[in-house]
Protein backbone atom coordinates (compact mmCIF):
# COMPACT_ATOMS: atom_id res chain seq x y z
CA UNK A 1 0.00 0.00 0.00
CA UNK A 2 1.23 3.48 -0.86
CA UNK A 3 0.23 6.53 1.21
CA UNK A 4 0.87 10.02 -0.13
CA UNK A 5 -0.80 13.43 -0.45
CA UNK A 6 -3.51 13.49 -3.11
CA UNK A 7 -3.34 15.82 -6.11
CA UNK A 8 -5.75 17.26 -8.69
CA UNK A 9 -5.20 14.10 -10.74
CA UNK A 10 -7.05 12.18 -8.01
CA UNK A 11 -10.23 14.31 -8.08
CA UNK A 12 -12.36 11.73 -9.90
CA UNK A 13 -11.25 8.86 -7.66
CA UNK A 14 -11.77 10.97 -4.51
CA UNK A 15 -15.26 11.94 -5.67
CA UNK A 16 -16.16 8.32 -6.38
CA UNK A 17 -14.93 7.30 -2.91
CA UNK A 18 -16.95 10.07 -1.24
CA UNK A 19 -20.12 9.12 -3.14
CA UNK A 20 -19.61 5.43 -2.24
CA UNK A 21 -19.08 6.29 1.44
CA UNK A 22 -22.22 8.45 1.60
CA UNK A 23 -24.29 5.79 -0.21
CA UNK A 24 -23.16 3.28 2.45
CA UNK A 25 -24.51 5.64 5.19
CA UNK A 26 -21.03 6.79 6.19
CA UNK A 27 -21.24 10.01 8.22
CA UNK A 28 -18.86 12.41 6.48
CA UNK A 29 -21.05 15.50 6.33
CA UNK A 30 -23.19 14.76 3.27
CA UNK A 31 -26.65 13.36 2.52
CA UNK A 32 -27.40 10.55 0.06
CA UNK A 33 -27.62 10.75 -2.93
CA UNK A 34 -24.56 12.92 -3.41
CA UNK A 35 -24.25 14.35 -6.93
CA UNK A 36 -20.94 13.91 -8.69
CA UNK A 37 -20.65 17.67 -9.28
CA UNK A 38 -21.06 18.33 -5.54
CA UNK A 39 -18.49 15.71 -4.62
CA UNK A 40 -16.10 17.21 -7.17
CA UNK A 41 -16.69 20.73 -5.83
CA UNK A 42 -15.99 19.56 -2.27
CA UNK A 43 -12.66 17.99 -3.17
CA UNK A 44 -11.65 20.90 -5.40
CA UNK A 45 -12.07 23.21 -2.41
CA UNK A 46 -10.34 20.77 -0.06
CA UNK A 47 -7.30 20.53 -2.36
CA UNK A 48 -7.17 24.32 -2.73
CA UNK A 49 -7.20 24.55 1.06
CA UNK A 50 -4.41 21.94 1.20
CA UNK A 51 -2.32 23.95 -1.24
CA UNK A 52 -2.68 26.94 1.13
CA UNK A 53 -1.25 24.76 3.91
CA UNK A 54 -4.50 24.68 5.90
CA UNK A 55 -4.92 20.92 5.69
CA UNK A 56 -3.23 17.70 4.66
CA UNK A 57 -5.22 15.33 2.46
CA UNK A 58 -3.69 11.86 2.18
CA UNK A 59 -4.66 9.03 -0.10
CA UNK A 60 -3.94 5.30 0.15
CA UNK A 61 -3.37 3.33 -3.04
CA UNK A 62 -3.26 -0.37 -3.64
CA UNK A 63 -2.30 -1.49 -7.15
CA UNK A 64 -2.60 2.16 -8.22
CA UNK A 65 -6.26 2.24 -7.16
CA UNK A 66 -7.31 4.79 -4.53
CA UNK A 67 -8.66 2.72 -1.61
CA UNK A 68 -8.82 5.34 1.13
CA UNK A 69 -8.38 8.94 2.16
CA UNK A 70 -8.09 10.95 5.37
CA UNK A 71 -7.68 14.65 6.14
CA UNK A 72 -5.89 16.54 8.88
CA UNK A 73 -7.20 20.07 9.34
CA UNK A 74 -4.26 22.16 10.55
CA UNK A 75 -5.70 25.67 10.61
CA UNK A 76 -7.10 26.27 14.06
CA UNK A 77 -7.84 29.36 16.11
CA UNK A 78 -4.77 31.39 17.17
CA UNK A 79 -5.31 30.12 20.72
CA UNK A 80 -4.95 26.50 19.54
CA UNK A 81 -1.68 26.31 17.60
CA UNK A 82 -1.05 22.84 19.05
CA UNK A 83 -4.34 21.27 17.89
CA UNK A 84 -5.35 19.61 14.62
CA UNK A 85 -8.51 17.78 13.64
CA UNK A 86 -8.88 14.42 11.91
CA UNK A 87 -11.70 14.38 9.40
CA UNK A 88 -13.06 12.69 6.27
CA UNK A 89 -11.52 9.28 7.01
CA UNK A 90 -12.86 6.93 4.33
CA UNK A 91 -11.98 3.44 3.15
CA UNK A 92 -13.25 1.84 -0.06
CA UNK A 93 -15.74 -0.93 0.65
CA UNK A 94 -13.51 -3.41 -1.20
CA UNK A 95 -10.62 -2.71 1.20
CA UNK A 96 -12.39 -2.73 4.59
CA UNK A 97 -10.59 -4.61 7.33
CA UNK A 98 -7.27 -4.39 5.50
CA UNK A 99 -5.75 -1.80 7.80
CA UNK A 100 -6.16 1.06 5.31
CA UNK A 101 -7.86 3.39 7.81
CA UNK A 102 -5.35 2.66 10.57
CA UNK A 103 -2.43 3.27 8.20
CA UNK A 104 -3.92 6.59 7.08
CA UNK A 105 -4.51 7.75 10.65
CA UNK A 106 -0.95 6.75 11.62
CA UNK A 107 0.43 8.72 8.67
CA UNK A 108 -1.62 11.79 9.65
CA UNK A 109 -0.42 11.50 13.26
CA UNK A 110 3.15 11.65 11.94
CA UNK A 111 2.24 14.68 9.79
CA UNK A 112 0.71 16.30 12.87
CA UNK A 113 3.93 15.78 14.82
CA UNK A 114 5.91 17.21 11.89
CA UNK A 115 3.73 20.33 12.14
CA UNK A 116 4.33 20.59 15.92
CA UNK A 117 0.76 19.54 16.71
CA UNK A 118 0.39 17.72 20.03
CA UNK A 119 -3.39 17.36 20.34
CA UNK A 120 -5.68 15.65 17.85
CA UNK A 121 -9.45 15.79 18.02
CA UNK A 122 -12.19 14.23 15.92
CA UNK A 123 -15.84 13.32 15.99
CA UNK A 124 -17.27 10.04 14.77
CA UNK A 125 -20.83 8.81 14.41
CA UNK A 126 -21.69 6.40 17.22
CA UNK A 127 -21.71 3.18 15.19
CA UNK A 128 -20.03 0.09 16.59
CA UNK A 129 -17.31 -0.11 13.93
CA UNK A 130 -16.44 3.58 13.72
CA UNK A 131 -16.07 4.29 17.42
CA UNK A 132 -14.24 1.00 18.16
CA UNK A 133 -11.79 1.87 15.37
CA UNK A 134 -10.65 5.08 17.07
CA UNK A 135 -10.61 3.53 20.55
CA UNK A 136 -8.33 0.80 19.24
CA UNK A 137 -5.97 3.48 17.92
CA UNK A 138 -5.69 5.03 21.39
CA UNK A 139 -8.22 7.84 21.01
CA UNK A 140 -10.11 8.70 24.16
CA UNK A 141 -13.79 9.50 24.28
CA UNK A 142 -14.87 12.87 25.64
CA UNK A 143 -18.49 11.74 25.49
CA UNK A 144 -21.46 11.45 23.15
CA UNK A 145 -23.68 14.20 21.78
CA UNK A 146 -27.16 12.88 20.94
CA UNK A 147 -28.93 13.87 17.71
CA UNK A 148 -25.77 15.49 16.41
CA UNK A 149 -26.21 14.96 12.67
CA UNK A 150 -28.45 13.33 10.12
CA UNK A 151 -27.12 10.08 8.73
CA UNK A 152 -26.76 10.08 4.93
CA UNK A 153 -29.74 7.73 4.54
CA UNK A 154 -31.84 9.66 7.09
CA UNK A 155 -32.46 9.73 10.83
CA UNK A 156 -30.58 11.67 13.46
CA UNK A 157 -27.62 9.95 15.08
CA UNK A 158 -25.30 10.55 18.03
CA UNK A 159 -21.67 11.55 17.64
CA UNK A 160 -18.75 10.68 19.90
CA UNK A 161 -16.03 13.27 20.42
CA UNK A 162 -12.50 11.80 20.58
CA UNK A 163 -9.10 13.19 21.44
CA UNK A 164 -5.52 11.98 21.59
CA UNK A 165 -2.46 13.61 23.04
CA UNK A 166 0.54 12.91 20.81
CA UNK A 167 3.11 13.58 23.49
CA UNK A 168 1.50 11.57 26.28
CA UNK A 169 4.17 9.57 28.13
CA UNK A 170 1.96 6.45 28.06
CA UNK A 171 3.31 5.16 24.75
CA UNK A 172 6.94 5.44 25.66
CA UNK A 173 6.59 3.42 28.84
CA UNK A 174 4.28 0.77 27.43
CA UNK A 175 5.71 -2.63 26.49
CA UNK A 176 6.49 -3.43 22.87
CA UNK A 177 3.24 -4.11 21.07
CA UNK A 178 2.75 -6.91 18.56
CA UNK A 179 -0.78 -7.08 17.08
CA UNK A 180 -0.52 -10.83 16.39
CA UNK A 181 0.43 -11.55 20.01
CA UNK A 182 -2.35 -9.26 21.26
CA UNK A 183 -4.87 -11.13 19.17
CA UNK A 184 -3.65 -14.51 20.39
CA UNK A 185 -4.10 -13.52 24.05
CA UNK A 186 -7.45 -11.93 23.42
CA UNK A 187 -8.63 -15.18 21.81
CA UNK A 188 -7.55 -16.95 25.02
CA UNK A 189 -9.55 -14.41 27.07
CA UNK A 190 -12.56 -15.10 24.85
CA UNK A 191 -12.21 -18.84 25.60
CA UNK A 192 -12.28 -18.04 29.31
CA UNK A 193 -15.34 -15.84 28.83
CA UNK A 194 -17.02 -18.78 27.15
CA UNK A 195 -16.28 -20.90 30.23
CA UNK A 196 -17.83 -18.29 32.53
CA UNK A 197 -21.03 -18.76 30.58
CA UNK A 198 -21.01 -22.51 29.97
CA UNK A 199 -19.55 -23.72 33.30
CA UNK A 200 -20.85 -21.15 35.78
CA UNK A 201 -23.73 -19.42 33.96
CA UNK A 202 -22.02 -16.11 34.75
CA UNK A 203 -21.68 -13.02 32.57
CA UNK A 204 -19.15 -14.02 29.87
CA UNK A 205 -16.07 -11.96 30.67
CA UNK A 206 -12.60 -13.50 30.58
CA UNK A 207 -9.18 -12.09 31.49
CA UNK A 208 -5.52 -13.11 31.11
CA UNK A 209 -2.48 -11.49 32.73
CA UNK A 210 0.67 -11.86 30.63
CA UNK A 211 4.10 -11.24 32.18
CA UNK A 212 6.77 -9.07 30.53
CA UNK A 213 8.35 -12.37 29.37
CA UNK A 214 5.19 -13.22 27.43
CA UNK A 215 3.91 -15.94 29.80
CA UNK A 216 0.32 -16.19 31.01
CA UNK A 217 0.66 -15.83 34.82
CA UNK A 218 -3.01 -15.50 35.75
CA UNK A 219 -6.34 -16.30 34.17
CA UNK A 220 -9.87 -15.73 35.30
CA UNK A 221 -13.49 -15.35 34.44
CA UNK A 222 -16.45 -13.88 36.27
CA UNK A 223 -17.20 -15.86 39.47
CA UNK A 224 -19.45 -13.44 41.37
CA UNK A 225 -22.41 -15.76 41.74
CA UNK A 226 -20.48 -18.99 42.24
CA UNK A 227 -18.28 -17.53 44.99
CA UNK A 228 -20.82 -15.10 46.50
CA UNK A 229 -18.17 -12.46 45.91
CA UNK A 230 -19.00 -9.02 44.52
CA UNK A 231 -15.31 -8.47 43.73
CA UNK A 232 -14.84 -11.68 41.72
CA UNK A 233 -14.70 -10.02 38.32
CA UNK A 234 -12.55 -11.75 35.70
CA UNK A 235 -9.80 -9.13 36.04
CA UNK A 236 -9.62 -9.46 39.85
CA UNK A 237 -9.57 -13.28 39.67
CA UNK A 238 -6.73 -13.12 37.09
CA UNK A 239 -4.80 -10.56 39.15
CA UNK A 240 -5.09 -12.65 42.34
CA UNK A 241 -3.68 -15.69 40.54
CA UNK A 242 -0.92 -13.63 38.92
CA UNK A 243 0.08 -12.17 42.30
CA UNK A 244 0.35 -15.68 43.71
CA UNK A 245 2.28 -16.97 40.70
CA UNK A 246 4.75 -14.08 40.84
CA UNK A 247 4.89 -13.90 44.67
CA UNK A 248 4.27 -10.19 44.33
CA UNK A 249 1.33 -7.85 44.83
CA UNK A 250 2.75 -5.66 42.06
CA UNK A 251 2.35 -6.89 38.48
CA UNK A 252 4.99 -4.58 37.06
CA UNK A 253 5.33 -4.71 33.26
CA UNK A 254 2.38 -7.09 32.90
CA UNK A 255 -0.40 -6.78 30.31
CA UNK A 256 -4.04 -7.59 31.03
CA UNK A 257 -6.23 -8.87 28.22
CA UNK A 258 -9.92 -8.70 29.02
CA UNK A 259 -13.00 -9.17 26.87
CA UNK A 260 -14.94 -6.21 28.35
CA UNK A 261 -13.83 -2.70 29.30
CA UNK A 262 -12.91 -2.81 33.02
CA UNK A 263 -15.24 -1.29 35.65
CA UNK A 264 -14.16 1.26 38.28
CA UNK A 265 -13.29 -1.45 40.84
CA UNK A 266 -11.08 -3.40 38.45
CA UNK A 267 -9.52 -0.23 37.03
CA UNK A 268 -8.53 0.83 40.54
CA UNK A 269 -7.01 -2.57 41.27
CA UNK A 270 -5.10 -2.50 37.96
CA UNK A 271 -3.55 0.85 38.91
CA UNK A 272 -2.68 -0.45 42.41
CA UNK A 273 -1.05 -3.50 40.83
CA UNK A 274 1.04 -1.27 38.52
CA UNK A 275 -0.10 -3.22 35.45
CA UNK A 276 1.62 -1.67 32.44
CA UNK A 277 -0.98 -2.16 29.76
CA UNK A 278 -4.63 -3.13 29.39
CA UNK A 279 -6.11 -4.40 26.14
CA UNK A 280 -9.87 -4.83 26.17
CA UNK A 281 -12.34 -6.03 23.54
CA UNK A 282 -15.87 -4.64 23.87
CA UNK A 283 -16.47 -1.18 25.29
CA UNK A 284 -18.94 -0.99 28.19
CA UNK A 285 -21.20 2.03 27.70
CA UNK A 286 -22.88 1.44 31.11
CA UNK A 287 -19.96 1.01 33.54
CA UNK A 288 -16.70 1.18 31.54
CA UNK A 289 -13.88 2.93 33.41
CA UNK A 290 -11.40 3.26 30.56
CA UNK A 291 -13.14 6.29 29.11
CA UNK A 292 -16.66 5.09 28.21
CA UNK A 293 -18.31 6.26 31.44
CA UNK A 294 -15.46 6.84 33.92
CA UNK A 295 -11.81 7.65 33.29
CA UNK A 296 -10.36 5.75 36.28
CA UNK A 297 -7.99 3.62 34.22
CA UNK A 298 -6.72 6.50 32.11
CA UNK A 299 -6.76 9.32 34.64
CA UNK A 300 -3.61 11.40 34.58
CA UNK A 301 -4.06 12.05 38.31
CA UNK A 302 -2.68 8.61 39.22
CA UNK A 303 1.05 8.29 39.87
CA UNK A 304 1.02 5.18 37.70
CA UNK A 305 -0.16 5.39 34.10
CA UNK A 306 -1.65 2.37 32.38
CA UNK A 307 -1.46 2.19 28.58
CA UNK A 308 -4.93 1.27 27.33
CA UNK A 309 -6.20 -0.02 24.02
CA UNK A 310 -9.79 -1.00 23.32
CA UNK A 311 -11.75 -2.63 20.53
CA UNK A 312 -9.61 -5.72 19.80
CA UNK A 313 -12.03 -8.53 18.72
CA UNK A 314 -14.83 -6.33 20.08
CA UNK A 315 -17.44 -7.84 17.77
CA UNK A 316 -16.84 -11.37 19.07
CA UNK A 317 -16.87 -10.31 22.72
CA UNK A 318 -19.95 -8.14 22.19
CA UNK A 319 -21.85 -10.89 20.41
CA UNK A 320 -21.13 -13.33 23.25
CA UNK A 321 -22.41 -10.82 25.84
CA UNK A 322 -25.52 -9.98 23.83
CA UNK A 323 -26.34 -13.66 23.28
CA UNK A 324 -25.93 -14.32 27.01
CA UNK A 325 -28.26 -11.53 28.10
CA UNK A 326 -30.78 -12.42 25.40
CA UNK A 327 -30.85 -16.05 26.57
CA UNK A 328 -31.52 -14.95 30.14
CA UNK A 329 -34.46 -12.70 29.32
ZN1 LIG B 1 -14.72 -5.14 37.11
What is the 3D shape? elongated
Poorly predicted parts: 169-174
Structural class: alpha+beta
Mean residue pLDDT: 92
The percent range for helix content is 25-40%
Neighbour order of strands in the largest sheet? 1-2-3-4-5-7-6
Provide the succession of SSEs.
EHHEEEHEHEEHHEEHEHEEH
Bound molecules: zinc ion
Q: How big a fraction of the residues is strand?
A: 25-35%
Discrete helix count: 9
Distance between the termini: 47 Å
Annotation, overall tally of beta strands: 12
Which oligomeric state applies? single chain
Quick one: biggest sheet?
7 strands, mixed
C-alpha Rg, in Å? Answer: 21 Å
Structural summary, described in words:
The protein has 329 residues and is of the alpha+beta class. It has nine helices and twelve strands. Helix 1 (11-23) crosses helix 2 (36-51) and helix 6 (179-200) packs parallel to helix 9 (314-328). The longest helix has 22 residues, at 179-200. Mean pLDDT is 92; it is low at 169-174. Bound molecules: zinc ion (ZN). The site of zinc ion has 6 residues, from helix 8.
Amino acid sequence: MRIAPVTDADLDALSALLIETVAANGSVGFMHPLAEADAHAFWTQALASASRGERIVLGAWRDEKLVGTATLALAMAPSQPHRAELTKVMTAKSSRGAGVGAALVAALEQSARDHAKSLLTLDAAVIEGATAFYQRLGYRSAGDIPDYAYKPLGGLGATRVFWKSLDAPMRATSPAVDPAIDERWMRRALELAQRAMSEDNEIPVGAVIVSPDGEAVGEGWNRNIAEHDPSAHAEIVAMRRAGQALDNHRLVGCTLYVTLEPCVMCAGALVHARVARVVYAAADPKTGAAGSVFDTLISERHNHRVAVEGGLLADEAGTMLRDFFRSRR
